[in-house]
Amino acid sequence: MSLKRLMEEYLPAIEDELHQTIAQVDRPGLEMMHFMLAYHMGWEGEGAGAEARGKRIRPLLVLLSSASAGGDWRAALPAASGVELVHNFSLVHDDIQDQSPLRRGRQTLWTRWGVAQAINAGDALFALAFIALQRMEGTVSPQAALKAAQILQEACLTLTNGQYLDLSYEGRSDLTIEDYWPMVSGKTAALLSACTELGALAAQAKSDVCAAYQRFGHLLGLAFQAQDDLLGIWGDANLTGKSAESDLISGKKSLPVLFGLGQGGAFARRWLEGAIRPEEVPGLAEQLEANGARAYTQESAMELTAQALEALKDTGLQGEAGEALFSLARQLLQRET
Amino acid sequence: MSLKRLMEEYLPAIEDELHQTIAQVDRPGLEMMHFMLAYHMGWEGEGAGAEARGKRIRPLLVLLSSASAGGDWRAALPAASGVELVHNFSLVHDDIQDQSPLRRGRQTLWTRWGVAQAINAGDALFALAFIALQRMEGTVSPQAALKAAQILQEACLTLTNGQYLDLSYEGRSDLTIEDYWPMVSGKTAALLSACTELGALAAQAKSDVCAAYQRFGHLLGLAFQAQDDLLGIWGDANLTGKSAESDLISGKKSLPVLFGLGQGGAFARRWLEGAIRPEEVPGLAEQLEANGARAYTQESAMELTAQALEALKDTGLQGEAGEALFSLARQLLQRET
Known about the structure:
The structure is a homodimer of 337-residue chains. Chain A has 16 helices and two strands. In chain A, helix 12 crosses helix 13. About 2% of the residues of chain A have low confidence. A two-stranded antiparallel sheet of chain A has the order 1-2. Chain A is an all-alpha fold and 337 residues long. Helices cover 72% and strands 1% of the residues of chain A. Chain A has one domain: Farnesyl Diphosphate Synthase (Orthogonal Bundle), CATH 1.10.600.10. Chain A is globular, with a radius of gyration of 20 Å. At the A-B interface, helix 5, helix 6 and helix 7 of A face helix 5, helix 7 and helix 8 of B.
């Protein structure tokens, strides 16, 4: 119950903070640029609304981390909007890189306004992320505000490292699960660990507590991704609301796929021949399972989930926000959909 | 002489600082990503060397501003590398946006590694710019380090505003010189004004002195661009080493072109019909001159140059670095090549 109640309190404040940041582009002559950003954020244009906005998991993590570390969640709002803007900058560029026509059922920026404007819109969100974060100056000491900027900058660099690896794996035939963790540490875990660490920092938590929150966010990211990859092949398509086979069809270098490639058997040979057709998916999923990929992924997800929840306990989280953070972590990690 | 001497002192330190920053990506598994960045910076790969590196005008402006404001130029090195990395991030993304195959005679990142990796390399340079700047923490007060970050962040946002305008002008038939200044303020002047302001800030100059340096950088940017646009059509091709006609052929929305479009005459009609062929260039350049575009651009350049040099005097610049900064400004503004 506490998660639901706190989300009702936090989510409107997060949207306000995001609006306030993006309003910096709402100037004469820049109306269409502002619209592009507001469209991407799910506020304007066709299909705008809660569905288009996404779940705002990252800013929620920031605020819940901050409150559960004993801080006033409002002091962490600049960090919450900063991480959400970084996440959205990366989505805009990802969509171009992956040539994805749709995101959350709506046209992506590059399909609607072209690659050039979409690259620039992503760059603007990147700049706005740091402008948003800088408001921490008003809520914490100058030293802590500088530390916050450093945390987010390094998360951004690690994000680009992970993205580099992901892109570089395309068409490679020599991948193994060893190649999975550095990619996912960059693509998923870096920003989540920044969320939880920034929350603790905004609460002026001691450095060992900040480190525990950071560790929790990192493990949460790895565990979440392993679970997501498991469901991406063996999830119940009816429950997930998307084709359970999509990870095999999209060519995503997920944990079971890299495990399978590392075996160098029939699955690996087929994977390297090119795009997988929907009718091949059940057979390939069985082949992967027979290779041990499902069991390995399941074990990894379980092990990482246990570690993440352990790390969360180590933070010494408190109060209603502590309960809510625990609920959110469990929802993210123990979902079957 | 002082400019030459100081450049010999500053340029190797700038390269060192840049190397040190980009070395953060020099890690196992990221070798090719590091190479992409080092290639773009002009350090590695075919054609590497002084020519490929560019002139490092922006970091020189930072250091000369700092020293001429009475500071130790070494304290400004983090800012110098920060602005150069922002400049280079924008070049990498510009080259994709403009589909330019070459930069400084070498293949651009996107032609060599594809659009996806080039977008990511630009993003990495963006993140590294702020990581570089953050080292100001070690050279100035926390408050000044935060102010420095804010200056660079806002310059980046203004840069994306200018880029948005530039891209949005493509194919538009209703442009006038009114549309020129906001674009150039963003694309050229924003980063130059950040350079000079950051230099003064690193020297711990008072806020009115910082404001004067900022104003100088802004006017320097506008004056430089007006002069560049003049030479881009009427410069002596033999002296510039590039076709004097290139601005008309590349379709650049330069000051004389927007002036000409604002007249709505024969030039405007021809411009809107599509790409201009080399054999049309002399006639169109004459037409533009007859329309008053050359005189207008020349006057603008002269007026802005005078204002920029006046603003430079207002900074109260001192010593050998002051002389050198004055020389650099004059070289940039009064060049005929």
